[in-house]
Every structure is written in structure tokens, then in C-alpha cells.
Amino acid sequence: MASSYSSDLKIELMATGENAGTWGTKTNNNLNLVQQAVAGYQAIDVASGDVTLAMSDGTISNARNATLKFTGTLAANRTVTVPDSIEKVYNIVDGTNHANYTLTIKTASGSGVLLCEGNNYVVYSDGTNVVKLTEQRLWRTISAAETVQAGAKLFVETNGGAVTVTLPASPAIGDEVTFVDSRYTFDSNALTVGRNSSKIANASSDLVVNTEGAAFGLVYSGSNVGWTYTEK
């Protein structure tokens, strides 16, 4: 019986009596594949196009890495695709500049996880979809107009002029965005929160914030009320 390969990590499964004289080489190769799955790291530039990850039989492959960091400035909405039919946990670092575009990690057949610029994730592929387990939301500073993703935590600088931050399109219930007036200048140069077709606090209008030192969060509660305050 010839060797076969495991369904998830594609490690060579050697049959009894097979590969005489090459067990050492093949075992070491298998150990390197396990090492990649447990401790492997790879940075992948997603700026110029979508990326399809590979999981090849018995060969070092980018889909086998434990940790993936996505880099580059997006030039359009981008998708990173994990092969169907493998089950695996990934640490994901979104190190990209979204530049008002979106970044999604998914299986070929699934809907996947929409990532937020600057945040870190633990996700898993169950063979048909990528599912988010945890998200580490990190603060970042903006001083110009931007469309943000769910999970954004923003120090907003308006000392150089008013800033408009547009909320995510097609939000899901529980999506959150947090804002802080980091320069205490909202009173002179206001923050405008663009509603992007959803209501904000039950109003069909953008939210203008002109209170010095304002700090508040919004959570999407559904289409009836839309985005509502978590604190203000």
C-alpha cells in the first residue's frame, strides 16, 4: 500500500513496509510540516490582488502556517482564501492599510471573517468556513476621512481640520466602533460620523460631535434603531 496524506495538514502517512531506506528523510520532512503548523509565520502582501492560500501534500505551504500577517495598502476590496476541506486554527495579524477598502479571510465556499485594520485575530477553518474565535482590538490614530470596519478603536485628531469617519456598510448586530477626541479639538473642528445608510441613535442622519474631549462607542443593534451608544 502506498503512502497517503492527512486530510488537514497534508502530512505523509507512510504505510507499513513502505519507503524502505527513506524513513529518516520523510520523517524529518513531516516534522518540518508539523513545525510550520505549530510555529510557522509568514507575511503576505495583499495590496495588489486577492490571495489563495495553498495546502500541498508533503510540502511547505503558506496555508499551513500558524500565524499569517497581511501587509500592504489595499487598492480594492481584497480576499484571502483558505482551501476548503481543511480544519485548522490561524493567528491573523491585519497589518494592512485598508485605504477605505475591506479585507476578508474565508474558505473558497464560505463567507468568512471581515478583518479590521490594525487588529489581531484567532480564527479557525472548519472545512467549509472561517470563523472568528477572538479579536484583539488595538487603538490607532486617524486625522483624515476614512471608512472603517467593525472593531475599530480610533483616536481621532481634528486639530488640523474637521474629520469624517464613515461607519461600516452592511453592519451585523453587535458590530462596534469606538471614538476618542485625542487632541481635545472636537469643539473647534467637529467629528462627523457618517451613517453609511444605517441609522445612528434612531436618526436617519449623520452624527456630528462637537464636544471637547468626547469619547464614545457605537454598537449596531439592528435596523430599527441602527447604531446606538455603548457609552458617551
Quick structural gist:
The chain has 232 residues and is mainly beta.
> Approximately what portion of the residues adopt beta-strand conformation?
35-45%
Please report the total strand number as a whole number: 20
Helical content band: under 10%
Number of helices: 1
- Overall tally of domains: 2
**Structural class of the helix and strand makeup?**
mainly beta
SSE sequence, one letter per element: EEHEEEEEEEEEEEEEEEEEE
Radius of gyration: 22 Å
CATH architecture of the largest domain: Sandwich
Distance between the termini: 67 Å
CATH class of the largest domain: Mainly Beta
Instruction: Note the overall shape.
Output: elongated
Unreliable parts? none
Mean pLDDT: 96
Q: Strands across the major sheet, in which order?
A: 3-5-7-10-11
The major sheet is characterized as:
5 strands, mixed
Q: What is the CATH topology classification name of the largest domain?
A: Jelly Rolls
Tell me what the structure shows.
The longest helix is centred in the N-terminal third of the chain and has 17 residues, at 23-39. This protein is mainly beta. It folds into two domains: 4-136, Jelly Rolls (Sandwich); 139-231, Jelly Rolls (Sandwich), CATH 2.60.120. The protein has a five-stranded mixed sheet with strand order 3-5-7-10-11, with no helix packed on it. A five-stranded mixed sheet has the order 12-14-16-19-20, with no helix packed on it. It has a four-stranded mixed sheet with strand order 4-6-8-9, with no helix packed on it. It is elongated, with a radius of gyration of 22 Å. It has one helix and 20 strands. Helices cover 7% and strands 38% of the residues. β8 and β9 form a beta hairpin. It has one helix at residues 23-39; strands spanning 4-5, 12-13, 41-45, 51-52, 67-71, 78-82, 87-94, 103-107, 113-115, 120-126, 130-136, 139-142, 146-147, 153-156, 163-166, 176-181, 191-194, 207-209, 215-220, 227-231.
